[in-house]
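Researcher: Next sequence.
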Amino acid sequence: MAKCATSRALKWLCCFAWGCATLAASNVFGAGEEKAPLPVRENNSAKGATVVDIGSAWDRVLPLDLTRKPNDVWDRIRRGFAMPDFNSRRVIQLQHSYLRRPAALERMFNRSARYLYYIVDELERRHLPTELALLPMVESSFNPLAYSRSRASGLWQFIPSTGRDYNLTQNRWIDERRDVIASTNAALDYFETIYARHGDWHLALASYNRGENAIGRAVERNRAAGRPAEFSALKLPAETRDYLPKLQAIKNIIAQPELFGIELPYIDNKQFLATVDAPVGIDLATAAEYAGMPLEEFLALNPGFNRPAITNSGQTLIVPSGSAPKFKAIQNEFSQSGKGWRKHTLMQGETLTGVASRYGLTLEQLLQINGLHKRSRPAVGYALLVPARGVDPEGALAVSELLPASARAAARAGVRVEPDRSKKAGRSKAANKRGSAGRTGAKPVAKPAAAKTATKPTAKTYRGKRR
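Model: Next structure:
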């Protein structure tokens, strides 16, 4: 009898340990769903069977101690988790998908290190759950230059119309959908609005992806049919059905990276960036040099510019805190030098070739700096970026090569483009309907898609997704 009791006790302890490790790894299963345990550490035997080593993985999990100050930004994020976990088999599948690509995960985590401190600060100031700090991993993989076929841009992937609704400036010179600070504030403003409408974070996230009106209609349909009004019960497109599980999968990995053999980059829990006023006329390559930064890294912190130089007053730049005093001192010297870049407004009878020659540029250089195509025909009154006398254009040319497709599309907005007569004029109706500049910005067309976005978005339009 004693032997049987001991055996039952051991079996119970093993089952308890397995359940704890599985739930801690992924918070996986809801009521009534088939349970599929998550392999934590797999060893393949000669027969191809999978053996799961729960004990060794569980020993590596570090407890969250709320009595001490956070070690780093990741620790702050974990402490601020406040959304209910979404438990489903799809979460496990997506979690495995992320873990099977460790190099991609590492790149994404490294990119996020530049921006997370500011985002977490804003979330805490607004008393919002810190799961939202991980959402750019789903939206853009924390690439501020990400640009989708629906013309969504930036870390938070705003489409043009919604960006305008949330006061994000978009013109030929700047696109605040890519500006880290402006777009983050706009995204959090929107989350406050949609959470206030739904009172449910899962529905708020679905609304961010699909549109608050579309989710509202789906909720009302379920209620009218006597079905649950929660996210998992709604009839949604595949992209939106995967949206919340993707965030939950990333949350599980961030919550306990030791369990999955992941090493997160250290992000110090202090502000290490500062904003400085941008001198009018400075090109971004020169600004990067003043900040003591490689050009690519500087543009990653200042991705909102559509042109390689700044010609309007009131703009700011983000630089490392240690470089800010030096930058401000050099800024005064630059402002007094009279050198820099300026705008040239096309007059009646002027040609691009003539303007290029006047400012010491080749026609190709003028087109590249202004994001124009060789067949572009800017109208009278179009503002061109040109250098002052004696300014070397090489820095601006280097920057223009790194600008995203959305910047080039913005530069071409309203510019007439000559048709390509070297190819057959015939196109299918489907091709004419789709266009190209409106989806990728790669090829301008006679009627650029920017003309469409000048109208106020309807109730069915949000972030470029179909409603």
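Model: Residues 2-26 form the longest helix (25 residues). The chain is about 45% helix and 5% strand.
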